[in-house]
Amino acid sequence: MKELYRILDANFNRAREALRVAEDCGRFVLNDPAVTAMAKNLRSDLREVLAAMPVKELVVSRDAPGDIGTELSSPTELVRTDIPDVVTAACKRMTEALRTLEEYSKFVSPEHTHRFERMRYDSYTLEQRLLGRLWGGRRFADVGLYLLVSSKIIASHHGSVRETVRSAIAGGAGAIQLREKPGDSSDAVLLALAAELRELTDEMGRILIINDRPDIAAIVGADGVHLGQRDLPLADARRLLRPGAIVGRSTHNIAQARAAVQEGADYVALGPVFDSDTKDAGPAAGVDLLKQALEDPVVSAVPLVAIGGINADNAPQVIEAGVTCLAVCGAICTSDDPKTAAAEIKKLIP
Questions:
Q1: Quick one: 96 and 220 in the same domain?
Q2: d(Cα 300, Cα 172) in Å, to the nearest integer?
Q3: What whole-number percentage of the chain has pLDDT above 70?
Q4: Which of 348, 337, 349, 330 is nearest to 147 (CA)?
């Protein structure tokens, strides 16, 4: 029995320590109350189960000096290159420890086995939330279909923002940008809408970008912000956002696109490519501008997003030009069937 107690004691410690690493990331790195609460609640659950165990026997059975595992380590154990590396290692320790607790508790405390199983599945969700936020910038290159959401446009067609976005994601939208123009909504309404979309995109595993408002993005824990030519410098916006947040910039010519990349943009939106009722940025530039951008060694260093009047009919021209990330608003937000509208464009993107 002493051997079982040693196993349980060691893995309670592993799980608790790993959860502290995860909680500190959610609290201090991401500034995300929801993720922090998830980690804190798991630690609380673990503490509660431990209190119901024979705690004295667990502690007495501990033998750190005689543990042969303290002398063993893998070559990568001491190597961490960034925060996602740290969090990944902690989350793997956490789920492995919970699995061990689940299996060995069957001998000592079978009434807690199902609780360990539930905690393990909750840990998988916590890992996904943490790393999904931390890897947001890296994931943007694979977005494909980038939905620009305007509550005013959706409301004019008697639609629900939440259900439109949910349907568009089901149709293949990889990222959502909340794009409210000044005067369309009060700050309180904008904040509530942003929080609602944060919850939805978290649930469906998609990136959320807030247009123009790094303050709102920071409050709701969005994956990033999109800035126009007249908005804050990127460096100033990043001071309001968590480390690793995505920052994109709207541009209308090659010079602006180069400047955005040199400023540190994670992606550049270039357009309007076609005439658009939803983007007031001058006359349509056509796909030739996209081709020039892709041939430019500075601009092509980051993902290029085509924006402006894009729909299922003209999307093939954009894709033929070489751009594989398409920002779309009206073609989806005004559709009676956003899922199908999104899917028609998504299937064209390689």
A1: no
A2: 25
A3: 96
A4: 330
